């Protein structure tokens, strides 16, 4: 019996800002953004795209009519919750038209939550061979204009169909989690933006990776040579690279170092043009890896998930024969290539409208070519969604 990712897709809003231009506007040397943190573009979310609409947009192309009958659980992982009680999964369940007898709920632990959602789905499906679980990671990463975290913002969602006999990646029974109480990044109730200790966050991330990897290797007797590639949570592309480099010691062969380093670059290609999407960042990296490099069936991919506060987890999956046929490479390239660049001034106006919930569909939905869900209006604190095209 195998359980894993049968389908995977992502969605990002149609707007982005060029990081070099943002750096110049902030009187920062552009290479600090382009090379120092490793980001080229950053997705910008209009008011009309929140975690519900982005999550539904990420899932709509992988949920067939038959799937709607078989999905018995919908889990949304987010740290950008729009309600302290009502789960976004309930709204996404409605937008997608999934059968009514399904469990729907939301999970939170900073950027980590999509991983326990997957592990829960895996355990849930163990005795349910004819059912499926839809896991969605959807977030808008926001730190504020002119803030230290501004260049590590972004927006987007990743949707994964977890099933028996998956077509893409079969999960192995080898996950190791590591928990440590750290105030490296947190957002107290009522705060619009998170509080961040940048230096501590970097150190906590790397320590979490080293601890979970060391324990994983001890329990499984595996080494880095056993993996075709590794994927990391990617708040910015240089973060995971620092963690990877920390374990590429002199004892590791040059062939393994080269393979994993090249794999890391492939695994962060999409992230470089999207930015930080919190809970979905690891899984956007997985999509990027599988769509920019070629692997053989049976090869292992290692994954490191991290959520500030903090919980880290290292686990792995085995690639399934023909996995490439289940990917949407052309669709993803079109999604990224057909976005609209915003000037820094326009980006700032979009940012302010998002914070103030000021809708401007005439501007933000103009020339939209994709059939998408979007947030149309908010009346009496009730969100109303529409479809476009």
Automatic annotation (TrEMBL):
Residue span, Hydroxymethylglutaryl-coenzyme A synthase C-terminal domain: 254-384
Keyword Acyltransferase: yes
MF term (GO), any: hydroxymethylglutaryl-CoA synthase activity
Active site (UniProt): 79, 111, 233
EC number: 2.3.3.-
Top-level taxon of the source organism: Bacteria
One Pfam family this sequence matches: HMG_CoA_synt_C
Hydroxymethylglutaryl-coenzyme A synthase N-terminal domain span: 3-164
Family classification: Belongs to the thiolase-like superfamily. HMG-CoA synthase family.
Identification of the protein by name: 3-hydroxy-3-methylglutaryl-CoA synthase
Organism: Staphylococcus arlettae
């Amino acid at each position: 019996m195998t359980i894993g990712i049968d389908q995977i897709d992502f969605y990002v809003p149609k707007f982005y800002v060029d990081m070099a231009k943002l750096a110049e506007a902030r009187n920062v040397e552009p290479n600090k953004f382009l090379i120092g943190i490793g980001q080229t573009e950053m997705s910008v979310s209009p008011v009309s795209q929140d975690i519900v609409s982005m999550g539904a947009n990420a899932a709509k192309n992988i949920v067939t009519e038959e799937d709607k009958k078989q999905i018995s659980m919908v889990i949304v992982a987010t740290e950008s919750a729009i309600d302290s009680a009502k789960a976004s999964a309930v709204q996404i369940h409605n937008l997608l038209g999934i059968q009514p007898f399904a469990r729907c709920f939301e999970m939170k632990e900073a950027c980590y939550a999509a991983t326990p959602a997957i592990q829960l789905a895996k355990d849930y499906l163990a005795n349910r061979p004819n059912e499926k679980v839809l896991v969605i990671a959807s977030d808008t990463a926001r730190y504020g204009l002119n803030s230290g975290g501004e260049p590590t913002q972004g927006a987007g969602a990743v949707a994964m169909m977890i099933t028996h006999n998956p077509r893409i990646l079969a999960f192995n029974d080898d996950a190791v989690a590591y928990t440590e109480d750290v105030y490296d990044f947190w957002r107290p109730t009522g705060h619009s933006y998170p509080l961040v200790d940048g230096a501590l966050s970097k150190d906590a991330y790397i320590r979490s990776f080293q601890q979970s990897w060391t324990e994983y290797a001890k329990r499984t007797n595996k080494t880095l040579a056993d993996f075709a590639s590794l994927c990391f949570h990617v708040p910015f592309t240089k973060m995971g690279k620092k963690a990877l480099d920390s374990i590429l010691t002199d004892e590791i062969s040059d062939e393994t170092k080269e393979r994993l380093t090249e794999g890391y670059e492939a695994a962060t290609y999409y992230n470089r043009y999207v930015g930080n999407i919190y809970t979905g960042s690891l899984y956007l990296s997985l999509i990027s890896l599988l769509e920019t490099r070629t692997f053989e069936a049976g090869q292992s991919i290692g994954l490191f998930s991290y959520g500030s506060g903090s919980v880290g987890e290292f686990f792995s999956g085995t690639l399934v024969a023909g996995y490439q046929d289940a990917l949407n490479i052309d669709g993803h390239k079109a999604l990224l290539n057909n976005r609209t660049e915003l000037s820094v001034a326009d980006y700032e106006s979009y940012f302010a409208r998002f914070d103030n919930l000021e809708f401007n569909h005439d501007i933000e939905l103009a020339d939209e070519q994709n059939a998408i869900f979007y947030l149309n209006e908010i009346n009496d604190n009730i969100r109303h969604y529409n479809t476009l095209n």
